[in-house]
Design brief:
Order of helices and strands of chain B: EEEEEEEEEEE
Distance between the termini of chain A: 39 Å
Structural class of chain A: mainly beta
Radius of gyration of chain A: 14 Å
Largest sheet of chain A: 7 strands, mixed
Shape of chain B: globular
Number of helices of chain B: 0
Shape of chain A: globular
Order of helices and strands of chain A: EEEEEEEEEEE
Number of strands of chain A: 11
Oligomer: heterodimer
Largest interface: A-B, 22 and 28 residues
């Protein structure tokens, strides 16, 4: 059974770069018809899509975050990563990694990691 | 950007009730609409994809309908485990996925 797990620092200082890794287990990240994505959720608020990546390295980013976001993939370690630069308190959120299907009308996020809380504070 | 608006934002209902949540897109998104359930402290769980297809393992009391700009999620007979927050999400624009603001379903 495919599982995703986020990892990385839970506390980041303002103006620094947030870095998270998602490790995929129980299946390969190198598979057609699936993308891999990051979504975040400020405490008590709604969901915001950050971006997606394909195993080949093709990326799609939320335009509102595009200048600060980099998503990369490491097929050899079955991982993909998120970097968000110049963070502020507004970037404090639970960060989720997820698998996104790509098949006809079906572009849903079907498998999610448990999430990791990242707090931006000095 | 495509905006997604859910209504109501919150809803009180009783076990056994039939409940409907609506989601409206700011432009036509065909059938590219997904529904998720989220419980406190947990990630979202996919319920419905492509507007009306039931995700594997999801109880049949959940159903989705709609196309274009207007969509609904219906829970046929509320069970205690259904009290949660529900989100719609458009996947028409692969350059910018957007979620609705959420509907919190509470016990009356």
């Amino acid at each position: 059974q495919l599982q995703l797990q986020e990892s990385g620092p839970g506390l980041v200082k303002p103006s620094e770069t947030l870095s998270l890794t998602c490790t995929v287990s129980g299946g390969s990240i190198v598979i057609s018809s699936y993308y891999w994505g990051w979504i975040r959720q400020p405490p008590g608020k709604g969901l915001e899509w950050i971006g997606n990546i394909y195993y080949s390295g093709s990326t799609y980013y939320n335009p509102s975050l595009k200048t600060r976001v980099t998503i990369s993939v490491d097929p050899s370690n079955n991982q993909f990563s998120l970097k968000l630069s110049s963070v502020t308190a507004a970037d404090t959120a639970i960060y989720y990694c997820a698998r996104r299907r790509s098949n006809g009308y079906d572009y849903a996020f079907d498998i999610w990691g448990p999430g990791t809380l990242v707090t931006v504070s000095s | 950007d495509i905006q997604m608006t859910q209504s109501p934002s919150s809803l009180s209902a009783s076990v056994g009730d039939r409940v409907t949540i609506t989601c409206r897109a700011s432009q036509s998104i065909s059938n590219y609409l997904n529904w998720y359930q989220q419980k406190p402290g947990k990630p979202p769980n996919l319920l419905i994809y492509a507007a009306s297809s039931l995700q594997s393992g999801v109880p049949s009391r959940f159903s989705g309908s709609g196309s274009g700009t207007d969509f609904t999620l219906t829970i046929g007979s509320l069970q205690p485990e259904d009290f949660a927050t529900y989100y719609c999400q458009q996947s028409y624009s692969t350059l910018m996925f957007t979620f609705g603001q959420g509907t919190k379903l509470e016990i009356k």
